[in-house]
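Example record used in the benchmark description.
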Amino acid sequence: MVDHRSVDVGGVRLAYQVSGPPEAPPLVLLHALGEDAADWDVVARVLARSWRVYALDLRGHGRSDWPGDYSLQLMRDDVLGFLDALALDRVDLIGHSMGGVVAYLFAEEYPQRVDRLVLEDVPVPRPREQSTPIRPDGELTFDWEMVLAVRRQVDTPDPGWLENLSKITAETLAVAGGPGSHVPQEGIAELAHRVPRGRVVTIPAGHLIHNAEPTMFVEAVLRFLRPSGDGSVAAIAPGG
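Model output (structure tokens):
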């Protein structure tokens, strides 16, 4: 059963979905740009068998507040406020794309709060060619001003983000999407190399790994999060 809840963090209401046994170890999921907690539904059902799974709507997304003030650092600190509000001391943390950037910024700044870290097709923080995103037509489930703010930071990241990857103490798994992803795969390898306890696994599914190949993604995550156990799962059917 999935519960839909919210919590106030520094005046910003953060919506989240929670599932799994209350006594199980906590696992926090951070979605990509323009997505929300529901993006994790398929894999969260399996992960919730062994973890208490918390899937957030980051600020400017979904049912969380759209405060008009956006940065990846604010999202990072929202995660800290979320953990504090729910009295979660140390967690396993999974982030996809933008959510992965938030995740490694969190693990850099607050290393004592992360046990294990999974970064799903996350770009290394190096400058890239800037482009102006085009707003989709119709009503959006995210704040377009947030997209513009985040894209500027991803295009021209703070140099300290790269340097501080060495401060991450959590054992870290970078899951790369292979040649079908728009994210440079050599950058993912560099990111994992810079994290002292980092490693890479490639699932050739493109950028949306946990949606395109949920069974392979969950198996890789389970092998990493519980290395002494069995990482195999039955085939996961989206929506089933």
